[in-house]
Amino acid sequence: MLQSLLSRGNTGVPWEIGFPEVAIVATIGIAGYLLILAIYQLYFSPISKIPGPWYAALSSVWLYQRYIRGGTIFVMDELHERYGPYVRVAPNIVSVADLHSVTKIHSVKDVFIKGSVYGAMSSNLDVLIVETDPTAFKIRRKMLGSTFNQLSMNLLEPIIRGHVDACLRGIREEIKANGFCNFCELAKLLGLDTAGHIAFGAHFPPLRKEKFNNILRDTTFMLSLTLLRGLPLFGSIETLLSKIPHFAASPFFSCECRLTEFSTKAFDNVQSEIPGCKNGGLVRPLFAKISEDMNDESAKNRLTIKQARDEAFIMLLAGSDTVGLALVFLVWALLKHEDVHRKLDEELKALGNVEIEDSILQPLPYLKSFIQEGLRMYAPLQVPLPRVVPQGGRQLGDYFFPGGVEAMPATYTIMRDPEIFPNPQS
Ligand code: HEM
């Protein structure tokens, strides 16, 4: 009787397993696994005591869709307002709005390496900024950091001044011609021209206006493409789309070709030194030594052409958007706050009729505070910069963070903490 109930068909096998049975067992198995995982994440994970929205403890999907949609900093700020200085924003990521802990996270004495967001980029982009191995980071930092020391910056003053003057001329010309100017575009062009000049030792020959917009657009596309390439199936989708002429020729998918062509030209024209530095001083362009070493087999540390091109692309992106946006915010703040504008004017007028130089501007207290306040309120790089807690774990505030958990400094929120900055919004 029992056998007849269990048996199916006439195979004689007491219980024949077909697709529906496998599907049911698999569904129950997966549901059970997810349920156990959810209970673990919510109640037993070492960071389950850290407050935060319940869905954040279960999956990081909401966080990644927020990165894509934008406005992450405002959402994080609201979460900190609600839950306090430590908020669990993903199963393995905690947003930290406590200055004391953020100082520990960024301390040079301890190694909190860069988090998983950088990992997605580093699968396609071989650059310093996404390097997570501390030893490799130090080597690359030494190779790229030499030009940005204070001495070189002092000597480069006439070069930078030349680009600032060109930007001011551009503003006047545009206003004369149209009655207004696109300051955002001109400010980014100033950043790009200056970064390019310091990196390669000469003006970029093709870079003016319409070409500039294309390069800037391409660097932004390239960054998005790099992030997308970090996703599991994107590589295959991109290969497939690149076979279709319409997609292959689209500005988005063809940006890498144009950037490669651009950086190849820049590398071909890299100068051995930057002419026109202050007091006849010598500054080597950032990529001069790198370029020489690339062709020298005996050089200790050599970049490949791909690594050098990637670094050049990042320099152009880092030098144009950040500097451009910082200037836009500062000028906007100046126009918005008449009293600040007036005080700054008074400080500058008090200098009298002198040739304006960096050494004269540096000691001015109001100018310094204005720039610092502007960068505090409107920092141009508002992206999450998570760091991985080292093996053995660390105590941050009231919580113990096990090794491997990612701590993400909530810079926007800290910059508006009334205990650090009284009247932070004023
Ligand atoms: C107002 C302007 C700028 C702001 C606000 C800014 C902001 C930042 C921040 C926050 C980081 C750290 C990223 C991280 O830890 O993941 C960074 C790194 C970096 N920036 Fe900038 N940046 C500015 C201008 C520039 C310029 C002009 C250049 C070069 C031409 C540049 C090149 C770099 C490079 C190469 C790194 C990686 C270095 C490292 O990780 O140690 N930045 N920048």
TrEMBL record:
PANTHER family associated with the record: CYTOCHROME P450, CYTOCHROME P450 MONOOXYGENASE STCB-RELATED
Keyword Membrane carried by entry: yes
Family designation: Belongs to the cytochrome P450 family.
Superkingdom of the source species: Eukaryota
Transmembrane segment boundaries: 22-43, 312-335
Protein name, entry field: Cytochrome P450
Organism: Orbilia ellipsospora
Molecular function terms, GO-annotated: heme binding; iron ion binding; monooxygenase activity; oxidoreductase activity, acting on paired donors, with incorporation or reduction of molecular oxygen
